[in-house]
Prior knowledge:
CATH topology of the largest domain: Pdz3 Domain
Radius of gyration: 36 Å
Largest sheet: 6 strands, antiparallel, barrel
Number of strands: 20
CATH architecture of the largest domain: Roll
Order of helices and strands: HEEEHEEEEEEEEEHEEHEHEEHEEE
Oligomer: single chain
Distance between the termini: 138 Å
Amino acid sequence: MKDYLKEDRKKAIKKDATLIFILLLITLCVILAYILYEKTQITESNIEKQNVTIERTMQTVEQAQEKSQTVTEMIANIKDTVVGISKVKTSGSGIFSQENITSLGLGSGVIVTEDGYILSNAHVSGEKYSKCYVTLANGETYEGNVVWSNADIDMSIVKINQKNLTAAGLGDSDAIQVGETVFAIGNPIGFEFQRTVTSGIISALNRTIKLEEEEQEIYMEDLIQTDATINPGNSGGPLVNLEGEVIGINGVKITSAEGISFAIPINSVKNVINSFQKEGKFEEPTLGVFAFDKNVLGYIDENLQFSQGIYVASVTKNSAAEESGIKTEDILISIDGNKLERMCDLRCYIYSKKPGDIVSIRLQRNGREHVVEATLKRK
């Protein structure tokens, strides 16, 4: 009997051990299967991530290629609108020959209408009613007439008798931002370097610089500062954005510092261009004041301070401003309800009017505000 019980106990123990072993084996198999499954999932996830990364990289490369092609095409198109300007007609290698750069007053310009209006610097083309010579991208040279010129902002418009020209598109210089990519195009040092393109960014806006010319101090305001290289022959050429729109006209480079160049904002003369394009003329209205914004006052008098408006530095004798009662040291706050923060604001608005138009000006004098009306005169 005892032997029988022992035998049964051994059989039970063996059965339990077998069950435990089977359970352990099943558990190990489950654990192993789970590990393999996780590894498979991780591998698939990595593959998916790698595929996404590859796709994004390919998209980025494609976008970069498209952007590069777009910029290349844009530059190719805008270059055809850039011209050379000289005060003397030459033959042979053209006005861009190396020996003629200084003696001819070589500079650049940009075609702004299909019927031959060209925008440039006043110091390049000369004063109103003078003549100059314009060389197009095809190498042809034409006599040009300076139909408008303003030395205060160093801008001018030249007319040549040609039709169906390629004209540059104009951008909005009030909408540009620091850090934007820009391209300066012009004829820096000679015929073999005509229509040279340099790139950079907009370094700053609304800059004011002081220049000394013929023993006089001249202040240029509201300038666009860029690190795109601008050399003397580039003067009058366009500063363009990534869309190929002209946002400024290359003007001044500080020779004492590297990488500091300036352009005159295109909005300063948009109304002038539009008038020539629509009417074939521009009857320039004038108020007869020269004013500084807050950025200039540090050059003149550190004690002058005001929070808004522009400071009247001079009033032209017998001008609309003098007849309306505007005086030096007045601060012009607004014109026809439009706020004035820069001289450019006043000039742009005046250029939208005509001689004989009446404007309402709010000004501050000795801490008190006044409103005067002025009838614009012809310049």
